[in-house]
Amino acid sequence: MVESEKPAMSLGTKILLAVAVLAILYFVLQHSASSPKWRVINGYDSRYNDIGKFEGTIDELKAKCLSLPNCKGFTHTGWLKNAIRPKNEWNANASVTLRIHSDRVPALNSEGVPEL
After folding, report:
1. Is the pTM here over 0.85, yes or no?
2. Fewest beta carbons within 10 Å, which of 4, 21, 51, 99?
3. Same domain for 15 and 50?
């Protein structure tokens, strides 16, 4: 068959294809909206305000933090935080990675102070 002789897609097939695409988009949007967002800060720790130290992988620490309503974030070393201090009070430490739950901690303004 020559390119111009291809049979046209039926209206029913086009509708099924459109519905499938919309279903996929809906799933992606729904999943991304319900997934917690984590801001990753390398080289800093928001000292103090520790809930406790827990062992586990990053995914396990995320799950532990999400299971505690007052958990705002954690360090890769396992320290879960019940508050994140203003950025100008953070401790510089090249060996630490801080993860902040963006739904539980307001964005930091240009001065590093949480915007309430």
Report:
1. no
2. 4
3. no
